[in-house]
Amino acid sequence: MIKTQKEKYSGVFIMNSEQTIEHAIIEQNTEGELFRHEHFQLTGASHQVLVYPTWAGITDFERRVASRLNSAGFDAVIVDLFGNTQDLSTIEARKSAMHRLTRDFNHMVEHLCQLNTFICTQAGNEDKQASAMGFCLGGMCAVLTGLTRAGYMAAISFHGLLSFPKDRRPTDTTTRFMLLNGNIDPMVPEEDICATLNYFEDNQLDLTFMNFSRTLHSFSIPGAYNPDAGVMYNPDVAEQSWRYALDLLKHV
Fold first, then answer.
1. How far is the first Cα of the chain from the last one, in angstroms, to the nearest whole number?
2. Dienelactone hydrolase domain: from which residue to which, for each copy (predicted)?
3. How far is CA 36 from the centre of its chain?
């Protein structure tokens, strides 16, 4: 089911003005949950980008990302990863939700496949190029989508987790990957980086990996500030990484 609604939110990701954005809600019932994906449709766009949120679920941050994608010429759909019954109001609740999603990667891949297939049929992207991007947990979801789904032009991860299994063969070796990482992000240890780089090289995949110096986790999210936990917004890196991502999307 698709519903159109207007959402008022405070603009984030560099800009701070309030905007009113009209977008469609794509409702999906699966696994006993109601998922509400948000479609920021751009008439005439030939390329659709799936946006995977952080462990906090869909927020104004992701809506601003989708709006910026529209401004750059892309159709965008924000994926609801968790459904309507999952509490995401506290750090502990988010840890629980993320554990539920990532404890079985085979089930996680199947879950993402169900969401993506439904969105594809409802959002009308059969005749469009498709790519995926995500942030934090969503960054890993974008990478998994690029590795396990055929036909994706690009998969882009902003400060994404890299702890996914490295024993699965990629489905489509033509997908281009971009991993944008903070060099001192404690949630992405050196061993995960090394294993990931080796995996992409062993499978002869197209990978651009960027490590931003003096940069922590959540560097693209305005308001992120918990240096003791390794989390801090970096506006310069946020804008620089966004330009790199757009450049890839425009040239695939």
1. 31
2. 48-251
3. 16
For residues 77 and 50, the answer to whether their CB atoms sit within 8 Å is yes
* Assigned token pair, 198: 């080796």
DSSP category for residue 126: T
What tokens does 114 get?
A: 């169900």
Task: Print pLDDT tens along the chain (252 aa).
Answer: 555 444 433 333 333 344 455 689 999 999 889 999 999 999 889 999 999 999 999 999 999 999 999 999 999 999 999 999 999 999 999 999 999 999 999 999 999 999 999 999 898 767 789 999 999 999 999 999 999 999 999 999 999 999 999 999 999 999 999 999 999 999 999 999 999 999 999 999 999 999 999 999 999 999 999 999 999 999 999 999 999 999 999 999
Range of the domain at 162: 2-251
Scanning the structure block, which residue is given the tokens 């927020």? 59
User: What single string gives the DSSP state of each residue in 211-237?
Assistant: EETT--BTTTSTT-EEGGGTEE--HHH
Q: Note the pTM of the prediction, 2 decimals.
A: 0.91
CATH number at residue 211: 3.40.50.1820
Domains in the chain, number: 1
